[in-house]
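If I may wish for something, please walk me through the protein I am sending here so I can picture the backbone:
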Amino acid sequence: MSRRKQPSHSRPSGPPQRGSRPAKYGRNHGGSKGTRPGDDSYLYGFHAVLAALHNPARAAERLCLTRNAEAELTRQGINPATAFDLRPEIMDNDDVAALLPAGAVHQGLALRTSPLPERDVTEACEGATRVVVLDQVTDPHNFGAILRSAAVFGATALVTTDRNSPPFGGALAKAASGGLEQVRIARVTNLVRAIDELKELGFEVIGLDGDGEASLPDLNLSPRVALVLGAEGTGLRRLTREHCDLLARLPAAGPMKSLNVSNAAAVALYELFRRTA
């Protein structure tokens, strides 16, 4: 099948230099890009908190847990008093809840930590063969669920827009169930430019679209694939669509032809994973 013709644009000569720069951090690590609101809010829930505590790129600042959560960690073979770089604060359930948004299902744990390192596209995609690209996915639960699927199915990098994407706070981390700590993320100001960078890094860029010209399972894809998904309802923006190498759809058997963006991501990522499993 023929690939989508790309608009002409200049590219730098020679292969891009990869892996030569250290990851950049927010204010807690002296980086130059700073932080965004919500980046260093409390994380909560067992999977999100434990994954952040074990992430060497994070600096834990405050760990709050209930007696029940302490007992559960002990049952799992973790001594909260000695296992981490800070001593936990034991609190009542209501006191933990008071630190968090109303209705947060915290499971007795809350963690305040430094923000994740900020990476550019090259840094995030170092060593990756599968990349997820999100075109203005704003819902933290959808975003988090996509990160979880990416972590499960071996997509080790994600590229998203700097604007119109959710903060990497508690709700997103809870939905990601640890995936926020496992998938390297690049936030970019210009998604089209980032897509061109992915092509320069050797990725074939596939936009997932209900009106795509081919079914994703039927495609003969390159070893390195970037999967692009659009916002719930509106889908991919025009310029994003035009810069993809190909638009593909998921096969559907019934009268309904579309999925929630996080479900579509899970199905598509599994399809890419099974080809290399």
Summary: Confidence is low (pLDDT under 50) at residues 5-40. The radius of gyration is 20 Å.
